[in-house]
Design goal:
The protein has 200 residues and is of the alpha+beta class. It has nine helices and four strands, in the order E-H-E-E-H-H-E-H-H-H-H-H-H. The longest helix is centred in the middle third of the chain and has 20 residues.
């Protein structure tokens, strides 16, 4: 049985989850866009995002939970007693999205598996691997032949100059520049081995 990591301030995590019983999380562009809006509302105040990918029945995000001082400054609280538990911000996202999706599609019931999965990332090499893994998910599942062809991931944002909350400068720096970033994403990686590591 997989151990559920406790979210800690200042740490990097790969967070991912599936729809219950392979239920689709996203059916159309409106669903993807609304999830990202809610993500910004509930998660951005407590976590910086470095990579993400939304697939029809699951998603992946790479985040760093903000330091205590950053969270307090953003929320206006003077100490930790006023803050919600860190995992609650993600739970609130899933609950709000589930409620909206059920109303939108006139369905009912649970949407996300519980508890949501999270894996602590404690090395720079692992950080790079997770970025490439997340961006190559649509390729692995045969939605496209290259990450740049898939619209619901942060791959293109990392190479763009458009304003974004994504920590793209840090991501590109991990790879040593845009050329190396693109080169690493062109390499064949063992997605099945990563799936085993993540217990997917």
């Amino acid at each position: 049985m997989q151990t559920i990591e406790k979210l800690e301030h200042g740490q990097f995590y790969h967070i991912y989850n599936h729809g219950v019983g392979e239920r689709n999380l996203f059916r159309d562009a409106n669903n993807y866009e609304y999830f990202l809006e809610l993500y910004d509302k509930y998660v951005t105040p407590v976590a910086d995002t470095y990579a993400w990918c939304l697939m029809p029945n699951h998603f992946h995000v790479l985040v760093r939970i903000k330091d205590v001082e950053e969270c307090l400054n953003l929320t206006g609280f003077e100490n930790l007693s006023g803050l919600k538990p860190l995992h609650q911000h993600f739970s609130n996202l899933f609950n709000a999205y589930t409620k909206a999706l059920n109303k939108y599609h006139q369905t009912r019931g649970a949407l996300f598996e519980r508890p949501f999965k999270r894996k602590l990332i404690d090395t720079n090499e692992y950080l790079r691997q997770v970025v490439v893994y997340i961006h190559n998910n649509p390729v692995h599942h045969r939605f496209c032949k290259h990450p740049l062809e898939y619209p619901w991931s942060s791959y293109l944002t990392c190479t763009s100059d458009k304003a974004t909350k994504l920590k793209r400068n840090e991501v590109i720096a991990w790879f040593g520049g845009k050329q190396e970033y693109e080169k690493e994403h062109r390499k064949k990686i063992d997605m099945n081995e990563m799936d085993k590591l993540l217990e997917l």
